[in-house]
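Run folding on both entries below.
>entry_1
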Amino acid sequence: MRKMLMCLFLAAAMPAQAQVQSKSVENEYDGEKMTGHLYWDDVMTGPRPGVLVIHEWWGLNDYAKERAKMLAELGYVAFAADMYGGGRVTDQPDQAREWMQEVTADVEGWRERAELGMTQLKASAMVDPERIAAIGYCFGGGTVLQMAYGGTSAKGVVSFHGSLPAAPEEAQGKVGARILAFHGYADGFVKPEIASNFQEKLEMSGADWEFVAYGGDVRHGFTNPGAGNYGIDDLKYDAQADFDSWQRMQAFFSDLFAQ
């Protein structure tokens, strides 16, 4: 009995182990069902910062969900949004391009889809609605930049190997979200002139922005360990750029949410 009591005492004294939980969250845009996924650490209590995650052009696949889970492990509540609807995911570039173009053809609609995910994130009682950020990869990187140009309520956005759409003239003086963008110098999808124009227009807009370009052979998709599985030469994982950008994102959030 004494041994049993001692075991029970030790078990009670041990700290609870963090466990990331998730649940599906359904909403609707233009008559189409959008199913996103919310992630959080169930050991933490009280409102905490929330981060919206926007997927690559492949759709809301396991990679985007894994990044949301990683954010939850860092103590944030993360919501991986479905930008295409219907849970559509592909590994075929032509199909991915078609879906992406359907969304990006209407800039206002593009922003509205993303902000729907923001609304779902803020709806969680675990989230402090005053401390919200958004991150995105590839198509998702371009998406969070468009959110910033459109006046999102997020305090900051982070683009990883995004398409780098330029800030429109009407956004001048109106970009309230801080911007952090990571880019690979050898990215054949986003040419140097596009990156240069992106920076020039951001400076003209008066935004608070930072642009990090990784030199050498850092290509598109550098954060995704599965980038080379699609059979596209310009997609390549780079472990160092992935590690560095994730660390810089964390520092960015620490400063962003402390204000």
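>entry_2
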Amino acid sequence: IIPLEWLNTPVFGFINIHASLLPRWRGAAPVQRAIESNDKSSGITIMKMNEGLDEGPIIASQEIAINSETNGQSLIEQISHDSCSLLYKNLEKYLKGMLSPIDQNHEKSTYASKINKNESRLNWNLDAETLEQKIRAFYPYPATWFSYKGKRYKVLKAKISSLVGESGKILQIPLIIGCKKNSLEILEIQAEGKKAQTIEQFLLGNSQFEMNSYISND
């Protein structure tokens, strides 16, 4: 947040690049919240800053599709790449008075709260779809995780499985874990203090996961 006396100093104000299609997802974590909420698109907004949090009028915007393979890293990389050309195409027009900033529709705003690390623990009492979206959203940071037999494991990639079983129960090895609805098949995992591995690579040297045992949410 920049003080008003600073905002009013430059002739054309302060220009900001924001990683969402404002007014959706104002705040600290717009990329992650868009994926986590199963949005079908995100984007870039170039805006003139005001005293509010991401509330300034819009100079230009660009939509970016989100699909089932999109994760936090890939979306941030695309936004970072595309925002340069979007700014280049529109900044001179704005400075020449060829573009007039358009006020946001504040009634349609949503807030992308800062990610709390406690959010990243996987809760098997949720639907598999919800967990899969969270895994993609929080990759690579802070990354989702679970605890099993006193050890912590990050889940870096997973997919929804149609197998049905109790929440938190290991239904199949390679690793499929029951959820409130359907189940989650772990594809890429990282043991605490170790490097990331595919689940097949990981299980070659780790046999502690047992069929029909449970992964607790506590």
